Amino acid sequence: MTTRAPAHFYVYYRVEDDTAATRATIGALIAEVEARTGISGRLLARCEDPSTWMEVYEPIRDPGSFARTLAACVRSVGAADVAVDGVRRIECFAALGMDPARSSVRRR
């Protein structure tokens, strides 16, 4: 039986303005995600460009289910409205195992 490493979700986007309303919206999103999944998110800002924000959610045992729940929460609180052009980029990463022969990465 193979155990899959937990996933880590990184969601990044640019905001027009860092306002109390913008922070409240994302705060509501993070709270709703936690209420529905038990996963406590974190909010970061890029050091050299504080208009780029990143939400971090980890550890995620079921990435597919989490992605669906996150999307529902984004719609519920209107979180896409705070992102420039409504664009939120989601990246999902997991730890690599120690055996490169079992890696899914193909060498060229």
Descriptive overview:
With 108 residues, the chain is of the alpha+beta class. It has one domain: 2-Layer Sandwich (Alpha-Beta Plaits). It contains 2 helices and 4 strands. It has a 4-stranded antiparallel beta sheet, with no helix packed on it. The mean pLDDT is 91.
Write the layout of secondary structure elements.
Blueprint: E1 7-14, H1 20-37, E2 42-45, E3 52-60, H2 63-77, E4 89-94
Antiparallel strand pairs: 1-3, 1-4, 2-3
Helix pairs in contact: 1-2
Summarize the structure.
This protein has about 110 residues and is an alpha+beta fold. The protein is about 30% helix and about 25% strand.
Which characteristics define this entry?
about 110 residues; 4-stranded antiparallel sheet; 2 helices
CATH fold annotation: Alpha-Beta Plaits
Shape label: globular
Rg over alpha carbons: 16 Å
Counted by DSSP, the helix tally is 2
What structural class should be given to the helix and strand makeup? Answer: alpha+beta
CATH architecture: 2-Layer Sandwich
Question: How would a textbook summarize the main sheet?
Answer: 4 strands, antiparallel
DSSP, total strands: 4
Number of structural units classed as domains: 1
Spatial strand order of the main sheet: 2-3-1-4
Can you tell me the residue ranges where pLDDT is under 50 for at least 5 consecutive residues?
none
CATH class identity: Alpha Beta
Give me the strand/helix succession.
Answer: EHEEHE
Distance from first to last alpha carbon: 29 Å
Report strand %.
Answer: 25-35%
Quaternary organisation? single chain
Fraction of residues in H or I helices: 25-40%
